[in-house]
């Protein structure tokens, strides 16, 4: 079986990727900033990263943060992977990183370029946003008495377990380059997602759609982050909400 290193292996995607790979019999090392025995800050690199990569055949790069540093982390990882003779670097990215001028998206696109130019065998999978991210954002917005949403905006959330299955399968295969996007099963208005969330959590909020300004909003409004031609995910947002919150009767009120 293959020896695989999963960066960000304790995160939202890294955990199910690790579980899937181990269930298939692979030796998996989990690299994160605080998880022993491979506690490494990728932004700093160092000998700990070389130790984590010793004897590794494949790296699944899930580690990321919107707070900055992804490019430096990727550069350190790639340099160490070259030294270790890694065969395959599988990287997860986001649909629209080349179309939406959001700072985090630009950083993700720069990381993609580093992967492509790494000299390693590589695979890049772009996906739409995970269901849990949509819920986190809506939970923050719903703290106010009125839930204010960007007008004329849509999303295409996908189940993280499906992404984990796809990424794990790609990791154990041959390097495949840029593979087809993986999008959720439905392109939904943000308002419809918000109303589903309110119903599932038992919250009552007035919903107001507000037009915004700027290049990023225009790119989202134009659907730059969507991939309707690759709506291959199966789990719907309502199914995710039902598992997480039940039927809404036990949800939060107020």
Automatic annotation (TrEMBL):
Taxonomic superkingdom: Bacteria
Annotated NAD(P)-binding domain residues: 8-132
Stated name of the protein: NAD(P)H-binding protein
